[in-house]
Write a structure and sequence with these properties.
Layout (H helix, E strand, L loop, with lengths): L3 E4 L3 H12 L4 E5 L22 E4 L5 H11 L3 H8 L1 E2 L4 E4 L1 H13 L4 E5 L10 E3 L7 H11 L4 E7 L2 E3 L9 E2 L13 E6 L1 H13 L21 H4 L5 H7 L25 E7 L6 E4 L8 H8 L10 E3 L2 E8 L1 H4 L12 E3 L9 H19 L12 H11 L25 H23 L3
Parallel strand pairs: 1-2, 1-7, 2-6, 7-16
Antiparallel strand pairs: 3-5, 4-5, 8-15, 9-13, 9-14, 10-11, 11-12, 12-13
The structure holds flavin-adenine dinucleotide.
The site of flavin-adenine dinucleotide has 33 residues, from helix 1, strand 2 and helix 11.
């Protein structure tokens, strides 16, 4: 029987290796560390946690808790090791990171069907393969992926602008309009925050002096502009504070240009404008257009409240920029995690656009099972979208490319229900129970125990 090659001995790759080996498949697991480091990992251990030691909530009516139960039901090795290495953390699952990694390393190294090879992969191997090289995929492999997938289908950075709640915007100062009145709605598509000359320069000075999140070596290109996320939005994007530093008027001629806008309160064109674009159907959230930033969260709160109309803004998601290699999964992957373009080629982990430790483990689990099923010529599993893992796979493969951002497990990606609930807790319990029941039904139907 053909063997399976897995690139990356991180969270997704290790889980995938275990699942495939558990169903009798010979696995070669390639990990470049300790020979070659990523810049964030510190050791040569398999499944090293790069940052926090927490896998998030274990509460059964939270999305993170439900995902854990699904992954447990599917027989995850990494979740079992996390539970074995757990340390007290209230309602979260936190681990002793060294203990967690060494347990997994021991399990994989001693499995007769798993061969761990310490080598950087720079060319895609022939045959059945899972790419699980993570958000810090080595530059040589990234280059190979660009030549395989096309330049527009691999992103290297996340650039996220802050989102504010609509109800916290002061509409006595801000006004609705599109440039040159090119609106699709009667009331104006954008909310505009108008600056006078004095307000603008005070704001620019605060931006330039604001405290930034310090960049690691592998994030340094952010300072000179990076290609991040969907090319329509983020081609060559720079943090707003770096743009401000390049010249006092750079923003007034860039994302804050006032051209085509008249402030109804003054009847004049403002000196500069921050535009806010609607971010959800309900119109309760607005995105700060062109304001990707690397300021610390507390500085974002302080400085962005200097924007006229945002004096009391509630930031519901802070801006961020960081290295994150991920593919355009909506164009490239099926919900089975197999590539459209090549049978037997699977992707797993953060490189698919699934965020968070547990989501990465879960996607590795499904890719490992499916790669093994592919080799054994069995139909691949496509989990129901009412399960959290199924919904994550569906989200990354069906999202509109224009809006595609890496995402973690949340109830918002599950199909809605017409049932009425007394409160949020009751709704969450219903979604949680439905996920687990439908997972059980599905596994029963396909005969996967
Ligand atoms: C700096 C940083 C901090 C993060 N912090 C958190 C956090 O606190 N909580 C959270 O939930 N998520 C966090 N994430 C997101 C994500 O959950 C983790 O990165 C997670 O480890 C991803 O799992 P993975 O298996 O996809 O990749 P990884 O766990 O990174 O595994 C990929 C492996 O592939 C190896 N590799 C790369 N290229 C090659 C190659 N060419 N050949 C062979 N091997 C290769 C790497 O050495 C690595 O071991 C963070 C991400 C980053 C970048």
């Amino acid at each position: 029987m053909e063997n399976l090659k897995i690139i990356g001995g991180g969270l997704a790759g290790c889980e995938a290796a275990w699942q495939a080996a558990a169903s009798g498949i010979d696995v070669e697991l390639y990990e470049m560390r300790p020979e070659k480091q990523t810049g964030a990992h510190q050791t040569g251990g398999l499944a090293e946690l790069v940052c926090s030691n927490s896998f998030g909530t274990i509460l059964p009516d939270r999305a993170g808790g439900v995902l854990k139960q699904e992954v447990k039901r599917l027989g995850s090795l990494l979740l079992a090791c996390a539970e074995a290495a757990a340390i007290p953390a209230g309602s979260a699952l936190a681990v002793d990171r060294a203990g967690f990694s060494s347990l997994i390393t021991k399990h994989l190294m001693s499995h007769p069907l798993i061969h761990v090879v310490r080598q950087e992969i720079t060319r895609l191997p022939e045959g059945v393969c899972i790419i699980a090289s993570g958000p810090l995929t080595s530059p040589a492999l990234s280059k190979e992926l660009v030549s395989l997938l096309g330049e527009d289908y691999l992103f290297f950075f996340d650039a996220i602008a802050p989102i504010v709640s609509a109800e916290s915007i002061n509409m006595e100062i801000a006004f609705k309009a599109s440039r040159f009145n090119r609106d699709t709605s009667d009331t104006g598509d954008y909310i505009n925050c108008p600056f006078t000359k004095g307000q603008y320069y005070d704001f620019i000075n605060a931006l330039c002096d604001g405290q930034r999140i310090s960049l690691k070596d592998f994030e340094k290109p952010i300072n000179s502009g990076v290609k991040a996320g969907d090319p329509n939005f983020f081609e060559g994007c720079l943090p707003v504070e770096i743009l401000a530093q390049r010249g006092q008027d750079a923003l007034a001629f860039g994302p804050m240009r006032p051209i085509g806008l008249i402030d109804p309160n003054t009847g004049k064109r403002p000196f500069a404008v921050l535009q806010l674009r609607q971010d959800n159907f309900a119109g309760s959230l607005y995105n700060m257009v062109g304001f990707q930033t690397n300021l610390t969260f507390s500085e974002q709160k302080r400085i962005f409240r200097m924007i006229p109309g945002l004096e009391n803004a509630q930031i519901v998601r802070y801006g961020q920029m960081h290295r994150n290699t991920y593919i355009a999964a909506p164009k490239l992957l099926k919900p089975t995690l197999e590539a459209h373009s090549r049978q037997g080629l699977f992707f797993a982990g953060q490189i698919t656009g699934i965020e968070g430790y547990m989501g990465n483990i879960a996607s590795g689990l499904l890719a490992g099972i499916n790669a093994a099923r592919y080799i054994k010529k069995q139909p691949l599993l496509e989990l129901p979208s009412s399960t959290l893992l199924g919904a994550l796979c569906r989200y990354i493969t069906h999202a509109a490319m224009k809006d595609f951002q890496p995402t973690k497990a949340n109830f918002g990606i599950l199909p809605d229900t017409t049932r009425l609930f007394k409160n949020k807790k009751e709704r969450a319990s219903f979604l949680a129970e439905r996920s687990l029941a439908e997972l059980e039904d599905y596994l029963d139907k396909v005969g996967h125990l």
